[in-house]
Fold this protein.
Amino acid sequence: MQAFLHQLLSGLANGSIYASVALALVMIFKATHHVNFAQGELAMFSTYVAYTLIHAGVPYWGAFVITLVFSFAIGVAIERLLLRRLRHASALTVVIVFIGLLVIFNGLAGPLFGFTIKEFPTPFAPNASYGSTYLSPHEVGMIGVTLIVLAIVFAFFRFTRLGLAMRASAENPQSSRLVGIRVGWMLALGWGLASVLGAIAGMMAAPSVFLEPNMMVGIVLYGFAAALLGGIDNPWGAPIGGFIVGVLENLAGAYVVGSHLKLALALAVIVAVVVFKPSGLFGRTVVVRV
Amino acid sequence: MTMVSATADIASAPARRISGRRLWLAALLVFAVVVPLVSSGYHVFQLTQIVMYAIAILGLNLLTGYSGQISLGNGSFYALGAYTAAILMTNAKLPYWATPPIAGAVCFVAGLAFGRSVTRLEGLYLALATYALGVATPQILKLDVLERWTGGNQGVVLSKPTSPFPSLLNDDQWLYFFCLGAAVILFIVAWNIVRGRTGRALIALRNHPIAAGTMGIPVAAYKSATFGLSAMYTGVAGALGALIAGFVGPDSFQIILSIGFLVGGVVGGIASIFGVLFGAAFIELVPDLTKQVSEMSPSLRWLAELQYPAYGVLLIATMLLMPGGMAGLVRSVELRIARHLHHPPRT
């Protein structure tokens, strides 16, 4: 029982990472109907930036904030410089461009920051009082940070004018433009926020998966699974999907398939969702008019 | 659809251009036959790789370029083909020449099954599912249950095919002609599929699935059949790849393999048959060339590390600047020349 509880709770901790990644994916999907395949690699790149800053002597939370600003800038830049030109492009074109971005960031990380696997520090002391036999302080911190971030994101979208404008331009770009919202910039802002969410996920995940160019490959696969499971057009569903797949991953890893098949499990979740319930648990079923 | 349209030149291709095409084709065949006879072992190896990649990229083009189903996981079918060949040769003691057709058949069935289950998926969801398939492939290959056949992490070492006419062709040259034979057959089949009724049906369901269905094209059947066909091409390439390398191991089938096919397809022209050759030559030769250049002097060593970022930049640049790839570029230059000849600009 104790072992089960431990697996369950640390599944929630992993799930918090997937929740952030899934929310980032959903944010971009809502606004543009594209899935950002490069989300994970962007997050990995941001994590390297944080690592470099920390090693240059910047205190952890300082490096954390600078990294978020950097990630925001990169996200905005990608939207403004690249995705803007592809507004009317086919799904295939956009997917290929995202794969291009994925390869660029993945390929640059090695030459820029070194190929060796690095240890990434955690801001949560290993003997802190909030740790327990079930969850290490870092895992508690991971869940805490994710919940705070989710709360901020939802408050932002619910209670600020800017958040409202962003929701409006995702929902109905034409009418939004007519009432004076700068839809293009709202999209760029969405990209920036998504990239910030990814960076947080990366920095929270790095202490346990270690920092290397491919660290986000598996995580982002679970992020995809989470986003699909929660309903890819539902921002509330994404974090819930994240926590579900996190727990599922841990329980299945401990009791069913073993830890060697974690990626195949994500594949199974993705295929199962897209085949049996493409709208996910909380998504809207899309009806296409012929 | 901003992608190149393959329909345009079916309708408007003048007869004169077809004979021009024949000439090019003949030249290409002469090149493909003569050059390996006179070049060194390493170059023969490279040419063999190019022919093999061409088959794999052709499989991707049929699926993604023509029927519009985005696959980021064709490397999985390549792996399936390679492992099928390896297992047939080591466990069933089959001769090497029997493996590509069987690998093709196995992959056709697998592709059909996968295609059948994902046939309802629109572009993005399919891209996601195939991407997940591609990422998960090495893990599946390393499974303990399959280790008896797959060799787990170690993989399987194969004996290289030997030439039946050692006085005429050495082993490398023989393997090259073996691959070339397979490629010629598969190219002719693809050409006929694409230029006929089936090809038009595929293009129709790529450009407008709903309209295609209304016109009586069985969309689901065509989609899953194309998936099977694409997997078959890729599987044959995988079997040939295993013969060329003399080895299969799980880590040669990472997601970057599927991405490599995509790069080849996009650079050559994703909706073209002969652009494939350019794409295949590109993914085989460019990394090699970069490596050679970077070894020329220590100050150029950084070049070798930038192969993958360069792939990415190239993918994006091709999509932005010439979405038809090399084939599209050649086609538009051809058209421009033809127009110039028919209607010389007034002075």
User: Anything to note?
Assistant: Chain B touches chain A through 52 residues (CB under 8 Å). Confidence is low (pLDDT under 50) at residues 1-15 of chain B. The first strand of chain B starts at residue 156 and ends at 157. The CA atoms of residues 131 and 204 of chain B lie 25 Å apart.
